[in-house]
Each structure stands twice: as C-alpha cells, then as structure tokens.
Design goal:
Strand 14 and strand 15 form a beta hairpin. This protein is 6% helix and 49% strand. It has a single domain, classed as YVTN repeat-like/Quinoprotein amine dehydrogenase (Methylamine Dehydrogenase, Chain H). The chain is globular, with a radius of gyration of 21 Å. By secondary structure, it is mainly β. Strands 1-28-27-26 form a 4-stranded antiparallel β-sheet, with no helix packed on it. It has a 4-stranded antiparallel β-sheet with strand order 2-3-4-5, with no helix packed on it. A 4-stranded antiparallel β-sheet has the order 6-7-8-9, with no helix packed on it. This is THO complex subunit 3. Belongs to the THOC3 family. Pfam families: Beta-prop_THOC3. Keywords: Repeat, WD repeat.
C-alpha cells in the first residue's frame, strides 16, 4: 500500500505544470548594450511613455534622445539637444506625449524639447540650480527642485511657474502618486513628506530611515512607493495605508537611484556598490545583480518591457569620463 502511494505521488509530480519562471531565470541570459555619445558623464536616463525612445542628460551640458528598438538589432540613432549652459542633471518625458521632453539644468532653466525636431520649444528661468524634475501623471504640471531646497510648480500649458515654496530642510527627490492627488518629498531628515496636491499641505510625515532619504519611485500600479536612503536600505510603503511593507537590504552603500519595472513585479536599486540589484517587490528577495564598474547615477526601467537603462560615473583608463550609459535586458549582445 505504501508503494502505491509513492507511485501516485510520483505521477502527480510528473503531471504538475511547470513552475513559473523565477526572477533569476527571467534575467540570467539577458545582455547589456552600451550607448556612446556624451563627452562627459551621464547623470540621468529616462524612457518615453511608449518605451521606444530614451533620453540621457549629461555633465557635458547636453541631452540626447536615442531611438532604441526593444527587440531590434539596428544601431541606435541619437539626436543631440543643445542649449543648456550647465550640467543637465535630470530629465523626464511628458507622460501623455511620446515626443515632449523636459530637462532641468544647473543653469537655472527648465526647457521643453520636441524630440521630433530636437528644438527647444519652451524655457522658464528659475532662481536656483535645478537638480530634480518630475511630471504630474496627467501631463499638466511639472515640479522642479533645486539645490536651495526650493520647489517650483510649472504649468505646462503656459510654461510658467505658478507656485514656489522654500523648505527649511534638505529636499531630495520628488514625485506625484499615480493619480496626482499626493506629492512626495524625500528629505535629509530620513523622512518622506506626504503633501496634498495642489494645496501642498502636509498630510503625513513618514519616518522612513535612520539617515537621509535620497530617491523615490512610484510603483506603476499605484500601490507602493519605494524610498532609497543613505543607510543603504530601500523601504517599500503601502500608499493607501502609509505603512512600511518591507525593506530591501542587498546594497551596502547609500542608495542613489531606484526604479520599478513596468508591471511592478521587480525593483532595481543602485548605489556605489559595483552591481545593480533586482529584487522581487512582493517577497523582498534579491533575484539578480547586474555588474557595473562605478557608482550609479540613474536607473530606469522601460514602461513596456524588462529593459533597464543605467548610467554611472564610468571613467576610461586615462581617468576621463566615458560619457556612456547602458541598457540591460536584450536577448543578444
């Protein structure tokens, strides 16, 4: 009788459907491609809403737009955007329009570019060196943060500043939630300030980390926000309850940049560690590391595919900036 039970168990195991691919097997045979064009290091990379164009911003005072076929082998074409007179520190695409790009620069301007022509269509002069920029999900407003901890809201239709607010504490990255009703600031105090939008009144202060909070990302499903900190941890927060769901602990250096993939299943995080960590959002389990050669400035997942763009402080053998960024996730080199 016991033998029959064993036989039945064996049959049921053989008949069981194959287990779904785990994170490791999803990523292990994928390749990284290098994109060369900038003369100095790349600070920021961002995909447009269609996932076919990628913008890069550099210390060389330019941005570039690259046409990248997710499944193609053709050489990526790029277009140079000239006009800024200082480093292009961060950039973001209009979430509703695949050809409109906004750039924030140390030259105190924010510029809007048409990716079809490479021309600057709008410019607004602000009061400080801009280091952060993000679009409201409906594409109507842009928020800009500068080195003096001042937040400016720009009305995209008029391309004019409609609100300015100076904070008494260090403000790092900024983000809206997916519906545009909440606005988040990560601070040097280790907190995330949750503001109501558009009043910008404080609703919550999340005591998130034991050191400064540097970067923030919003899960595309709207359920979570993730925060990267100088304490080398990434914390995951349930937006509806404003409670910490879990932390990711793989990195050993201050977390500089984080990004959710297109379906919210994975989160990438990076620091001065010589790898980018990819972890499962729901379990916190680290499933893959992408090796890199220098401290990371920017990681961003494509909004449609598992392609991760990343830019670091890469230098060549002569210790000069390489001016490259890379994209991981291609089926072939």
């Amino acid at each position: 009788m016991s033998v029959a039970v064993v036989e039945n168990d064996k049959e049921s195991i053989l008949a069981a459907p194959p287990a779904p691919a785990t994170g490791k097997s999803v990523f292990k045979n994928l390749h990284t491609r290098e994109f060369i064009g900038h003369k100095k290091k790349v600070h920021s990379v961002a995909w447009n809403c269609l996932g076919k164009k990628l913008a890069s911003g550099s210390v060389d005072q330019t941005a570039r737009i690259w046409h990248i076929e997710p499944h193609g082998h053709s050489k990526a074409k790029d277009m140079e955007l000239k006009g800024h007179t200082d480093s292009v520190d961060q950039l973001c695409w209009d979430p509703k329009h695949g050809d409109l790009l906004a750039t924030a620069s140390g030259d105190k301007t924010v510029r809007l570019w048409d990716a079809r022509t490479g021309k600057c269509s709008q410019q607004v002069d602000l009061s400080g060196e801009n280091i952060n920029i993000t679009y409201k999900p409906d594409g109507t407003h842009i928020a800009v943060g500068n080195r003096d901890d001042e937040l400016t809201i720009i009305d995209v239709r008029k391309f004019k500043a409609i609100h300015k607010r100076k904070f008494t504490y260090e403000v790092n990255e900024i983000a809206w939630n997916t519906t545009g009703e909440l606005f988040f600031l990560t601070t040097g105090n280790g907190t995330v300030e949750v503001l109501e939008y558009p009043s910008l009144q404080t609703l919550h202060t999340l005591v998130a980390h034991t050191a400064g909070c540097y970067c923030i990302a919003i899960d595309p499903t709207g359920r979570y926000l993730a925060v990267g900190s100088a304490d080398a941890l990434v914390s995951l927060w349930d937006v509806s309850e404003m409670l910490c769901a879990r932390t990711f602990t793989k990195l050993e250096w201050p977390v500089r940049t984080i990004s959710f993939n297109y379906d919210g299943q994975y989160i990438a995080s990076a620091s001065e560690d010589l790898f980018i960590d990819i972890s499962e959002v729901e379990t916190g389990r680290s499933v893959y590391q992408i090796p890199c050669r220098a401290a990371m400035n920017s990681v961003e997942w494509n909004p449609k595919y598992n392609l991760l763009a990343f830019a670091a402080d890469d230098k060549n053998k002569y210790q000069a900036d390489e001016g490259v960024f890379r994209v991981f996730g291609f089926d072939s080199p």
